[in-house]
C-alpha cells in the first residue's frame, strides 16, 4: 500500500479561546480540505501557548480531515516535552509505544473525551463529575445546581437537530493562577442555520440570525425547536455571573464579551462549538 506524501504545517503564536485562535485552528481544515491524502506533521515549535480545552476543536478537525480525505497527523515529541505536556495529561496524545502516559498530578484537566450521540449516561457522568465536580467549583456548588440539567438539554438538542452520528468532542482545563476553567464542546452536525431556517420557514436566513434566534428563551421553549432552552438559559446564567460564552457555527463566532463587536467570521467547519470560560473566584 502506497504511503501518504509528507508535509509540514506550522502552528504559531498564542491560541487563547476566542476568534483569533479559532481562525488559526480552522485554517488547518481550510488548507487541507479536498487535498489528496497526506501525512501531516504539525509543527508546534513556534507555538507559545494553546488553551488546552481547544484540543476538542483540534481533535475534531483531525477527525474530519482523516475521515473525509485520509490525512494522518503527527506531532514531534520534542515539541511537547516540557512545553505542552498537557496534551498527554488531558488525553489528546495517545500513550507512547511502551504504554506510558503522563498522569494529571495537578488535577487541572477535564479530559478530552469523544461521546457517541446516544451515550447520554456517559455524558451525564462526565459533565456532572469531571466538569462540574472539578475542584475549581468546590466552593461554587451553585454552578452544578444551575447548569447540569441545561447541559443535558444541550446534548439532547444535538441528538435531535444536529443530524450527525459522528462523535461529540469535549475537553476542559482549569487555570488556578487565573481562577478560570475553560470548557469546549464540539459537534460535527449541520450547524444552527439549516434547522432554524427550516423551523422558521425561511424567516431566519443567516448564521447571525440563527444564533440570535437560538438564544431567545421564547423561541427555544417551542416544541421541537432547534437551539433549546439549555442553550439560552446557560447563556443568561453566564451573562449574569460574568462567565465567558462563545458559539461558533456556520462560519461565525459569537461571544458574550462586553464589547462593540460580538460577531466574528471564521473559516466554515461542520457543526457547532460551544466555549465556556468560568470565573472561579
Strand content: 15-25%
**What spatial form do the alpha-carbon principal axes imply?**
globular
* Number of helical segments with 4 or more residues: 10
Reported for the largest beta sheet, the result is:
7 strands, antiparallel
Q: Using the 3D structure, state the CATH architecture.
A: 2-Layer Sandwich
Our count of domains comes out at 1
Distance from N terminus to C terminus (CA atoms, Å) equals 55 Å
Physical arrangement of strands within the biggest beta sheet: 6-7-8-12-9-10-11
Low-pLDDT segments: 98-103
CATH class: Alpha Beta
Per DSSP E runs of 2 or more residues, the count of β-strands stands at 12
User: What's the average pLDDT?
Assistant: 89
Please estimate the helix content: 25-40%
CATH fourth-tier homologous superfamily: Histidine kinase-like ATPase, C-terminal domain
Radius of gyration: 19 Å
Give the structural class.
alpha/beta
Order of helices and strands: EEHEEHEHHEHHEEHHHHEEEE
Write down the CATH topology. Heat Shock Protein 90
Task: Characterise this structure.
With 281 residues, the protein is α/β, with parallel strands linked by helices. The protein has one domain: 2-Layer Sandwich (Heat Shock Protein 90). It is 36% helix and 24% strand. A seven-stranded antiparallel sheet has the order 6-7-8-12-9-10-11, with helices on both faces. A hairpin with a 2-residue loop joins strand 9 and strand 10. The relative contact order is 0.14. About 2% of the residues have low confidence.
Amino acid at each position: 500500500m502506497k504511503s501518504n506524501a509528507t508535509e509540514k504545517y506550522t502552528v504559531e503564536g498564542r491560541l487563547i479561546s476566542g476568534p483569533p485562535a479559532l481562525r488559526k485552528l480552522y485554517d488547518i481544515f481550510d488548507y487541507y480540505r479536498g487535498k489528496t491524502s497526506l501525512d501531516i506533521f504539525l509543527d508546534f515549535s513556534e507555538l507559545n501557548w494553546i488553551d488546552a480545552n481547544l484540543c476538542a476543536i483540534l481533535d475534531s478537525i483531525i477527525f474530519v480531515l482523516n475521515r473525509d480525505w485520509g490525512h494522518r497527523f503527527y506531532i514531534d515529541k520534542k515539541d511537547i516535552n516540557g512545553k505542552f505536556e498537557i496534551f498527554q495529561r488531558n488525553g489528546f496524545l495517545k500513550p507512547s509505544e511502551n504504554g506510558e502516559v503522563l498522569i494529571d498530578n495537578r488535577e487541572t484537566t477535564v479530559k478530552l473525551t469523544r461521546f457517541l450521540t446516544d451515550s447520554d449516561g456517559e455524558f451525564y457522568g462526565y459533565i456532572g463529575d469531571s466538569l462540574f465536580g472539578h475542584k475549581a467549583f468546590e466552593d461554587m456548588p451553585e454552578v452544578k445546581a444551575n447548569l447540569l440539567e441545561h447541559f443535558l438539554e444541550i446534548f439532547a438538542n444535538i441528538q435531535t437537530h444536529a443530524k450527525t452520528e459522528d462523535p461529540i468532542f469535549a475537553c476542559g482545563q482549569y487555570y488556578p493562577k487565573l481562577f478560570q476553567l475553560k470548557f469546549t464542546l464540539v459537534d460535527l452536525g449541520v450547524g444552527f442555520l439549516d434547522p432554524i431556517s427550516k423551523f422558521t420557514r425561511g424567516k431566519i436566513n443567516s448564521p447571525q440570525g440563527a444564533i440570535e434566534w437560538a438564544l431567545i428563551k421564547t423561541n427555544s421553549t417551542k416544541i421541537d425547536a432547534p437551539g433549546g432552552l439549555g442553550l439560552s438559559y446557560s447563556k443568561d446564567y453566564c451573562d449574569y455571573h460574568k462567565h465567558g460564552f462563545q458559539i461558533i457555527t456556520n462560519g461565525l463566532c459569537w461571544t458574550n464579551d462586553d464589547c462593540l463587536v460580538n460577531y466574528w467570521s471564521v473559516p466554515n467547519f461542520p457543526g457547532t462549538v460551544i466555549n465556556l470560560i468560568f470565573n472561579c473566584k
